[in-house]
Specification:
alpha/beta, Aspartate Aminotransferase, domain 2, Aspartate Aminotransferase, domain 1, 2 domains, 7-stranded mixed β-sheet, 13% strand, globular
Length: 372
């Protein structure tokens, strides 16, 4: 029994994909000597632009930098407020604070886990400058309604699409709704670049401002126009990202097929709902385990060699830097106590999926968490 408890996870919760093509691309760049903000970055930006309906794309060194620089480029800073969901990774709110503005937390839709438009409307005040919805877990937020809300109040809409490469709402891809949209290329995302981020914008002048901000405020060396930072993407990362971008359609369909198999196989827990008109790309396949039994189910899954993860156990408004705001967000708190993400990544085999399904049903039964 002790050996079983200490056994390694046979089906990991997430699995970065790094193949020979990615390795060869990285080596090719290293041998070229052009390793930072060179031709690979430019090519990656052009190719990613096709993915977001031709919007101008600016590559940076992380998804957090993409969010941060987007807010700065839009002129959002001290004295401003930005409406954000609390149920997200801390980077969503951190970017607001780093820009000098203050996040205002609003409630989520309990079905999609994304920012609720009605709650966002209630959170708008005289200092509100932007709405920052998160397309969480690969499910699109209600960007159409949030966009209409932003236009009504003269606010910017900045999409946090860091988990949602290829997701869509009513056949419109995420990344094309707001003034700016931010993507992450962290290794476990639906596509990666080892590390990196991208901002997609429609306005050419905004794109130029972003390019200045990522490169010490200059386009030409030593001709600094504004105060900027070093948030450039390396050409090694861009080369890997280009390979991954080419694979993204197949990866996405594999994730969606894996999710369908889990939907049809799991009988003990409620599977993730998908909103009408939404195309979910399943960065995470997230179920709810009510009744305070989530951690017990996770332990039972571990005993059966199936990995799982909790995204996110502590809402942002309860983290130390933001706890003074005392936001009343019961749906957010409930989600944080109940969510559990299961393996859905594209490297899963049919046998892996069967094992996950069996382990989930056994674990839920063992933990007394079966949903009737």
């Amino acid at each position: 029994m002790d050996r079983e408890r200490n056994a390694p996870e046979n089906v990991p919760a997430a699995q970065p994909v790094i193949g020979e093509e990615e390795i060869e691309a990285a080596v090719r760049v290293l041998r070229s000597g052009r390793v930072v903000q060179g031709p690979e970055v430019a090519a990656f930006e052009e190719e990613f632009a096709e993915f977001v309906d031709g919007r101008a794309c600016v590559a940076v060194n992380s998804g957090t930098s993409a969010l941060h620089l987007s807010l700065l480029a839009l002129g959002i800073g001290h004295g401003d407020e930005v409406v954000v969901p609390s149920f997200s990774f801390a980077a969503t709110a951190n970017a607001v604070r780093l820009a000098g503005a203050e996040p205002v937390f609003a409630e989520i839709d309990p079905e999609t886990f994304c920012l609720d438009p009605d709650a966002a409307a209630s959170a708008i005040g005289p200092r509100t400058a932007a709405l920052l919805p998160v397309h969480l877990y690969g499910h699109p937020a209600a960007a159409d309604r949030l966009g209409a809300l932003a236009r009504r109040y003269g606010l910017a809409l900045v999409e946090d699409a860091c988990q949602a490469h290829g997701a869509a709402l009513h056949d419109e891809r995420v990344g094309t709704f707001g003034e700016a949209a931010c993507f992450s290329f962290y290794p476990t995302k639906n596509m990666h670049a080892l590390e990196g981020g991208m901002v997609a914008v429609e306005d050419a002048e905004l794109a130029r401002t972003l390019r200045l901000l990522r490169n010490q405020g200059m386009e030409q060396r030593y001709a600094n126009e504004i105060v900027g930072a070093n948030m450039r993407m390396t050409d090694v990362a861009a080369a890997v990202g280009r390979v991954q971008l080419g694979r993204l359609p197949a990866y996405t369909e594999r994730r969606r097929a894996n999710a369908k198999a889990l939907d049809s196989g799991i009988t003990t827990l409620a599977t993730p709902p998908v909103a009408d008109g939404a195309r979910h790309v399943y960065h995470q396949y997230t179920v709810r385990v009510p009744g305070g039994r989530r951690d017990a189910v996770q332990r039972e899954l571990e005993l059966r060699g199936v990995g799982s993860a909790v995204y996110y156990p502590t809402p942002i408004h309860r983290l130390t830097p933001y706890a003074h705001q005392q936001a009343g967000l019961p749906e957010t708190d409930r989600a944080a106590a109940e969510v559990l993400s299961l393996p859905v990544h594209p490297t899963l085999t049919a046998g892996d999926l069967a094992r996950v399904v069996g382990a989930v049903d056994e674990a839920a039964a063992a933990a007394g968490a079966v949903v009737e």
